[in-house]
Design brief:
This protein has two helices and seven strands; from the N terminus they run H-H-E-E-E-E-E-E-E. It has about 170 residues and is α+β, with helices and mostly antiparallel strands. Strands 5-4-3-2-1-6-7 form a seven-stranded antiparallel sheet, covered by helices on one side. A hairpin with a 4-residue loop joins strand 1 and strand 2. The radius of gyration is 23 Å and the shape is elongated. The chain starts with a helix and ends with a strand.
Amino acid sequence: MSHDKLVKSIKVVLFLTIVFTFIILLFYASRLYNSLVLNPKLFNLSNDSKPAEITLQEANIKSIIRNVVLWLNDIIPEAGKSEKRWHPLRFYFVDSYNFYVEYTNNVETRKILIRLKGESDKKENYEVVAHFKPGRNMWDLIFGEDLFFDKDKLVYEYNIDKMSWEIK
């Protein structure tokens, strides 16, 4: 075999090895993404007892939490203004149609009051009614009105050990 053919063969083998390695990396990256972001356990809710004064349908809460987790970066006022990815920390349910979401990008923390205007499976039905930033009195209003400041709320927080949203 001539030297040129040997070099060409080595280049082909090297190229195929790089392509194969890249495909394997993509496969494992997609599996990691699915396990971290789309894992159904991420949206499991505990069956802890709920305060008597707040009665919400568990299925509706699951649907709302799942959708806000998936759509948060499209719903929040910061949408399109920053390349930072935000994720929810806590949900404060006033009722089935009004709830607060506390969220962070691991540098800043914000909170919004959302009013659900219809079915929970449509992104356009999530209306931001108020926006807050950390302040002297816990939260300072950026815009809107804090309509449920003094109301009891059902609080859900993510439990990383159990990989589920639980009532606090």
